[in-house]
Amino acid sequence: MKIFVCIKQVPDTETKIKISSDNQSIDSTGVKWVMNPYDEYAVEEAIKLKESKPGAQVHAITLGPKARAGEVLRTALAMGADEGILIDAPASLDSTATAKALAAAITKEGDASLVFTGKLAIDDNQSAVSQMIAEFLNIPHTTVVSKFTYGPEAITVERDIEGGAKEVVQMVAPAVVGANKGLNMPRYASLPGIMKAKKKVLKEYSLEALGVSADNKTKTLSLSLPADKPAVKLLSGDSQQQVTALVQLLRDEAKVL
Amino acid sequence: MGKILVFTEYSHGHLKRSAQELLTAARSSGQTVAALAVGSQSATITEELKKYGAQEIHLLKDAQFDQYNPELFTAAICDVVQKSQATAILASASSTGKDLFPRVGARLNSGVLSDCTELRFSGDNIEVTRPLFSGKCFAKATFDISPVKIVLMRANQLPVSESPAASTQTTEHSFSKPDLKTVIKEIVRGTSEKLDLTEANIIVSGGRGLKEAANFKLLNDLADVLGATVGASRAVVDAGWCSHGMQVGQTGKTVAPSLYIAVGVSGAIQHVAGMSGSKVIVAINNDPNAPIFQKATYGIVGDLFDVVPKLTEEFKKVMK
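Predict the joint structure of the above. Result:
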């Protein structure tokens, strides 16, 4: 059984974002790069499935600049993935081009039984690549998955939708599963795992080798930071006075009631 | 001239506000406005679609469309796009919209801009603003050569106005069920009747300052008076006090209500990223140095266990 897991390297959630002088990308100076948090759930679920299927292998794939992106594969390997596959491509690739490249790599590797992804990358907030990979592979998908069961006939998953509701979905494998928080508790990499991961050779593909062009369908025009907020209006007096003043301001000044 | 196909979601026989926003925006493009509604009840909203300026209405009325299925919907919507010769799609960045339209985009070899907060039409192209890193920064983006331009808008971002079209042409499309590898077995309803955080106009959100899960009752009482939805910080979700569906922040939901009341929330950078787009932010915290006060419009430095019940009572007086 070949299990693929697509992961992305993103700035840590504590990162304060700065914009480069080109106004098109973020300034990566001093950025701490980590595995996209939702991808950790994807890797964990892939490894859990592998552990329940003798002979199964987990292949972690990422797409990004070679200079840094390989590191996220080492993290996946240290957690227990068997192979790391790096698609060397600029960080500016859009969702459609990214999904095409990932799908092409999965097709090239062949025999996918299952593809795990995170439901969303916390940097570009698109939540598009998982579904697009499924389309390019012509297989079913479910995203925002908080429960996964692998059966001989079908995969059963639970998908979180609005208002706390869940859809119970069955798919015929192979399929793409987009992981949500709550799916599992991702394991920490063990020290021997980390040592072993450092020595592993990553497999590399260029976009050319995959027969995919870097043609984007969308483009970024410019980036900007949110406008500074005016200073907070702190309310004075005892708690009753504060509360009375607040409600009055919300009604008469802010007009949000 | 281009044609914009608006995917219009509805519930209980009425258009959702997000659909009204999308139709209003589409009208400003000067292009043909076509509305698509699906499901056995879709004919009940055609009058409303006309009110908001739909020049064409496309219906997929078959009962198979009452339940969202990514494979089925992708096939049927691509069929409507081709038959109607739409050049752009506007849809809500709802659970369904976000799941469905990237797949539609891939099938049409097109670009998708998801979770947008602003949109502008320039000629035949569309320019959007979308938050990156849950709102730590904003991108202006547009389409390169894309056969169909697909934009998914966040709810509550655009104005709404009615303006009926001079005439409306309605087309019912039939679609025979393809072989599907996806089956929706069951929908487990949530316990909450409240609007989802991403659609809520008022949010009351709690953090570690509440000290324990049971104290969220204070927030539920406050939310009930305001018709608000309750959210939570990552810390209290990780502690198991609240479900992940309630989490606001970079690894939870990004929200932009009219009013966001943060109670006992310190304001960690990843939380603030998810809510700083709110119109008015109220912070209630006993620590005057809590970073949440740097984002707040109004602040009360005080004991939330004293302040919140009084606030609930005060709102009761004015919300009658």
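DSSP finds nine helices and 18 strands in chain B.
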